[in-house]
Amino acid sequence: MTEALRELSSQIEARQGDAVLATEIVDHSGHVELTVTVIPSAIAKFLAFLREDAACQFQTLVDITAVDHPGREKRFDLVYHLLSMRQNQRIRVKAGVREKEIVPSITGVYQSADWYEREVFDMFGILFSGHPDLRRILTDYGFRGHPLRKDFPTTGYTEVRYDEAVKRVVYEPVSLVQDYRSFDFMSPWEGADYILPGDEKAPDEAKK
């Protein structure tokens, strides 16, 4: 498998050298993977090549996701996973994307990319040009922020709930139901100082 991926990597670099920035073959305990890093603007053209080329035939788009690196100039790694059932091979395609950089949609190459790109937009805020319906897919329409960014607060920015009185979804400022608690995990655990229901019937010695 490793030799086949080396050959595939060489063919891709030879035929798509203008789009490819780097290739890497990694062995994860016997599971060998090829990762190709490409220029964001060349994503659609490059994936069309992987789909149609006779030596590749990566006709199945498995997933699109992203990774957030807030400290980098190119903040996001946009990641595509493809499968070639004809060649029995998988490939990962990756592109470094700046915040607010617009990436070409690949819905014209893989129809299944429609919802994948919507999810990446919803969770990370990455924009795709040419997408037929780029709107949120997992969060509510009025949701603020993108939950899988590492600077997104754990509490979120607003609370969303259905208000029976007004018969609609309402948005409210975040209101924590309890104070912030700092846990010292190095100290021994101490039991609760309250009495559970039914414990009042136990002898005093059993409560200690």
Helix content: 10-25%
CATH topology of the domain at 1-135: Beta Polymerase, domain 2
- The overall pLDDT, averaged over residues, is 89
The number of distinct helices, counting runs of at least 4 residues, comes to: 4
Largest sheet, strands/sense/barrel = 5 strands, mixed
Share of residues in strands: 25-35%
Estimate the global geometry from the Cα principal axes.
elongated
CATH class of the domain at 1-135: Alpha Beta
Number of strands: 9
* Strands in their spatial order, largest beta sheet: 1-2-5-4-3
What is the CATH superfamily label of the domain at 1-135? NADH:ubiquinone oxidoreductase Nqo5 subunit
CATH architecture of the domain at 1-135: 2-Layer Sandwich
Which stretches are low in confidence, meaning pLDDT under 50 for 5 or more residues running? none
Membrane topology: Peripheral membrane protein
Domain NADH:ubiquinone oxidoreductase 30kDa subunit: 36-157
EC number: 7.1.1.-
Pfam family, one: Complex1_30kDa
Notes on the protein architecture:
The chain is α/β, with parallel strands linked by helices and 208 residues long. It has a domain of 135 residues: NADH:ubiquinone oxidoreductase Nqo5 subunit (Beta Polymerase, domain 2), CATH 3.30.460.80. β4 and β5 form a beta hairpin. A 5-stranded mixed β-sheet has the order 1-2-5-4-3. Strands 6-7 form a two-stranded parallel sheet. It is 19% helix and 30% strand. Keywords: Cell inner membrane, Cell membrane, Membrane, NAD, Oxidoreductase, Quinone, Translocase, Transport, Ubiquinone. It is a peripheral membrane protein. InterPro entries: NADH_DH_suC, NADH_quin_OxRdtase_su_C/D-like, NADH_UbQ_OxRdtase_30kDa_su, NADH_UbQ_OxRdtase_CS.
